[in-house]
Amino acid sequence: MTSETQDNLLHEERVFPPSPEFAAQANAQPELYERAAADRLNFWAEQARDLVEWQTPFTETLDWSNPPFARWFGDGKLNVTYNCVDRHVEAGHGDRVAIHFEGEPGDTLSLTYRELQDQVSRAANVLQSLGVQTGDRVAVYLPMIPEAVIALLACARIGAPHSVVFGGFSAEALRSRIEDAEAKVVITADGGYRRGNPFALKPAVDEALAQGAESVKHVLTVRRTGQETAWTEGRDVWWSEALAAASDTHEPVWVDAEHPLFILYTSGTTGKPKGILHTTGGYLTQVTYSFKNVFDIKPETDVFWCTADVGWITGHSYVAYGPLSNGATQVLYEGTPDSPHRGRWWEIVQKYRVSILYTAPTAIRTFMKWGEEIPADFDLSSLRLLGSVGENINPEAWIWYRRVIGGDRCPIVDTWWQTETGSILISPLPGITGARPGSAQKPLPGVVASVFDDAGEHLESGSGYLVLDEPWPSMLRGIWGDPERFKETYWSRFPGVYFAGDGANLDHEGDIWLLGRVDDVMNVSGHRLSTAEIESALVSHPKVAEAAVVGAADATTGQIPVAFVIVRSEFAEEAAADGAALSEALRAHVGTEIGAIAKPKKVMLVAELPKTRSGKIMRRLLRDVAENRAVGDTQTLADSSVMDLITQGLKS
Ligand code: WTA
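# WTA complex -> structure
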């Protein structure tokens, strides 16, 4: 965020209180804050008992005797899938629609809770027949189709932690994630649809397995597009055939509250992605709780739609687990907002009478650019609540979202959280909070957050670092296979508290305004990318000597990656002769190493990089160049002429 937008944000004074009608019917009433404040641990124990069914009740709420390794509800036993599916069927809601699926080509499918139970039971039987045992990891690499949710629930049903890899990641990224988690089975599809065309997925799995990933014994493949697919007999299994042959009943495996539920890789400040580990009881409790209160869900009447892909944490918590645990009806959409036309989302809202929409600011800014005449063509009167996640929502986009999409009547919840937090931690509560455009405002009841200064002191007001003072049920339990990195990354900057990596301002009303990452993590269209990860992808190219990547501000996507590359001397002539071709080849190389989302918007070939005397790259100066600004203070550079060289070189 530039300091100018930061300034505007902090001078935002508008307040939008909920209507009396909304407030009166809201799930969350002010006493929720009071109860949580009066006895925080007892509050969480109550939530866990009220919102989740336990096969063996817990007696201990929190064990924090070995921080930062928390145990929540440690002696209880439960099954997540039983809570997300079976209990609703048993309660007589088997005919309620769980998922309205809208495929990009226009095919549709509505699955009731009973049908979901049938599918999930079959898939769980199939996984077990393929040799997956409780505790074994399963990688999931799928498009946004119902099988993605079914696959996650099948894994959870047998206590096999899933590791979802976003379908936009490359074969190489998939291989390294499979290897880190030592997954035994990969669940994938022949392909999916995007912008009117089929794309292939299975070839990336084949390539990943050809390059390594030796732990994988079977590839369970959904037939989605009907594309021609290479087949390895004995290893590859068609999903549809295996499910058809399997039994439709399956006894859930009851696991300990701290049994691993999933691993999800996310970008950090170093080149290697971290496998964020979440466990069963605390995660389910807090995801169910936040979904119920932040989205005010009324399972009998609401239709919820979260536009995130299941490959990200938002898709885990608010597509797969939160809505289903609450017995809600939701929409699942496979494609992009602009295919076959720019009104596709609003057509979906109209068609399914969506009442709660949860999306990212980058999408809202794109719709603003396309113009309000597009949503105006559709009936959006079913909407009653809007949510935002993934990055700061600038007040202008917030106001547009409220007016154009929400018809000036829907409360907006700006929800702050992370892969690591598992569920929403900071957000308005829609029937209580007077919403302020651009602020995520207050920690949810039961969550304790603060803003610290550099020295680790609590700020009463002003800008500093966002921390979480107390453990919370859905907190990450660690980084897969790397307990030291877990301590170092989150618990060492300020001993004893969780450091989120975000800057924040606390105002005089006690509202929190997020100010963006304070580390080398970028936020591109609400997706987290690490500068170091893209740099190491660039340096792995034989023609590259050194690379620096910065996140440059972008009006639509928040940030875009821009790379500065020094070419190895043997290739300097080639670079001078046709720099554009080399830049393009390097962009493509990042696409192969990580995935298309990580491709730098621009690759600038430079002779030098600006460094301090101790050899640290001064990204601040590179960001000035990437954002077309006059270059700032260069006094701390080891060689102050470097920036002149870079800017002159780029001009020529
Ligand atoms: C950013 C996504 C401002 C933040 C759920 C965080 C936000 C990172 C907001 C986590 C918000 C998320 N306002 N910034 N409402 N929500 N962020 O792990 O920088 O993909 O640290 O989780 O997104 O990204 P992640």
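# post-check
The CA atoms of residues 307 and 359 lie 6 Å apart.
The radius of gyration is 24 Å.
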